[in-house]
Amino acid sequence: MVHMNSAGQGFDVFKLLIAAVVAGAILLILLQTLQVIPTPGGRNPNELASETVKSQINNLGLPQYVDNVVFKNNAVLSGKTIAENSKALSSDQVCVKITDSTPNKDAFKNTNGRIVQYTGSFDQRTRLVVICDRKNELDDTISDLELEDLGVSTDNCPEPNGETTRYCLISVIADQ
Fold first, then answer.
1. What is the mean pLDDT of residues 62-88?
2. DSSP for the chain, written as a single string
3. In this structure, are 31 and 99 located in the same domain?
4. Are residues 100 and 30 located together in one domain of the fold?
């Protein structure tokens, strides 16, 4: 049954048009929201950190940013694994940390610079910043590069055997 107004025009067509416009607006909002959720093609944190440490070990004092790092539920970023994969460092020469800028920070557990574990209920896209230097120069390098603005620091990191030993800090930071 088609309802007509006094001019003989049907309301059902207008209802359908309004429903289509509302559905389009909802779809647009959903698509914009879904851009925040990481795509399945995100990369594993341990693999990326290991590759980056290998390439940065001889580039003392130069930070390397790694984009599109995805932490899935119960993902672990391990200093011991990164050190082992680097084939140049021991586990006390690698520190992994979250920072003040880490997205969804409460879902990350940080264990004395040795392990970062993500316990969130959805995949979390982040970036990593990897910086290698001599342990006794790393804090000055972080300050010179203004990385402390991102919350990067060596607080609570493992202490290596020697102060002039090479040391790599891997920090989880915001995805731009």
1. 91
2. ---B-TTS-BHHHHHHHHHHHHHHHHHHHHHHHHTTSPPTT-B-HHHHHHHHHHHHTTSTT--EEEEEEEEPTT-EEEHHHHHHHHTS--GGGEEEEE-TT-TTGGGEEEETTTEEEE--SS-EEEEEEEEEEEHHHHHHHHHHTTGGGGT---TTPPPPS-TTSEEEEEEEE---
3. no
4. no
